[in-house]
Amino acid sequence: MLSMISVVMLSFPLSAQNTPLFAQPQASELRGVWLTNIDSDVLFNRDRLKNALHRLKELNFNTVYPTVWNWGYTLYPSQVAQKTIGQALDPTPGLQGRNVLQEIITVGRQKDLKVIPWFEFGFMAPAKSELAKRHPQWLTSRRDGTQIVKEGIHNRVWLNPFRPEVQQFIQNLIVEIVKNYDVDGIQFDDHFGLPAELGYDSYTINLYKKEHNGQAPPQNPLAPEWVRWRADKITNFMQRLFQAIKASKQNCLVSLAPNPQHISYHSLLADWQRWERMGLIEELILQVYRDDLSVFSRELEYPEVKLAQTHIPVSIGIMTGLKDKFVPMQQIQTQVQTVRDRNFAGVSFFFYETLWKMTKETPKQRLIGFRNLFPAPAIYPQGVKS
């Protein structure tokens, strides 16, 4: 059964009568959206998902980033997860018994949509997940031994990205997707780092001591050398992961959607600037979730962002709303135009449900707004945007 908003959407004709006021049609432009199972029902029904993908195509989107690793489970049948977690697929009603990833790929191929699975949780897991219960030795901690990291109202724990068995598990999950599915790429974000206050578990302390003549890590989690040491270890893993992906499927794009570097590196030990310079990223979508236009614009001007633009397609992630946060269409349109003015490769919106739901504006108003932004089709960007 389609939701009432879905019915409204499907019955509303997307005519060309509403001529965009400032949108610049682009022959090549990323027009993406993230599909998640957090605060969103789009993935929980096969017909709803199919209709959503059809609607995105009608609105001239060209790329979807569906979550495939979330809440400690996969959204596709996984032998790797079965072996490690004891559960091959997310058991949540609406997801169990389905292969959501394959459903998206099937429709995506019919509609000429790029499908780039998003490894949303990265090294993070719910505190009470089967993964955390079965492998408590895989978890890392603060100096005081605590492990819980709050994410909103949720209790999260983090797998230790320095442990070989953790790295192998994550790599196996990713390679499993790349080998078995007709995906255009695979996407990570800075959940492939680690909150800076973590890393004081016994395994990591002993590893640090081994490489520092018996000296323990600094008590200050933000001590520059300690941040650098941990970030470099994660970079080494990203290098091995990139090689494993390419060994499985050479044309599988490696995409990254991090926060700006000053947040990503210092808060999450994810040194995407270095990853980009090492050639480990082939598409960058910078999350710039800011309401203040001056702050939004400033984040686009950092040297590392401009440098990346000379090397790979760089797009900007724009927030279209959250469950408890309304973002008006006028702000979305202004931010898209700001991105275009600076010659970025395109935009991706977070997240699907807030394109025309969870908003104070009507579905019709939102649909008109996106039609004005994307009045004609555009191809997915290839190489560096000139």
Order of helices and strands: HEHEEEHHEEHEEHEHHEHHEHHEEEHEHH
State the shape. Answer: globular
Strand content: 5-15%
Helix content: 25-40%
Strand tally, please? 15
Total domains, how many?
1
Query: Poorly predicted ranges (pLDDT <50, ≥5 residues)?
Result: 1-23
Which structural class should the secondary elements be placed in?
Answer: alpha/beta
For the termini, the CA-CA separation is 45 Å
CATH topology: TIM Barrel
Instruction: Count every helix, treating DSSP H or I runs of 4 or more residues as helices.
Output: 15
What is the CATH superfamily label?
Glycosidases
Average pLDDT, rounded to a whole number, is 93
Radius of gyration over all CA atoms, rounded: 21 Å
CATH architecture: Alpha-Beta Barrel
User: Which strand order does the major sheet show?
Assistant: 5-2-1-15-12-11-10-9
Describe what this molecule looks like in 3D:
By secondary structure, this protein is an alpha/beta fold. It has a single domain (4-124, 159-373), classed as Glycosidases (TIM Barrel, Alpha-Beta Barrel). The chain is 39% helix and 15% strand. The strands form four sheets. Strands 5-2-1-15-12-11-10-9 form an eight-stranded parallel sheet. The radius of gyration is 21 Å and the shape is globular. The relative contact order is 0.15.
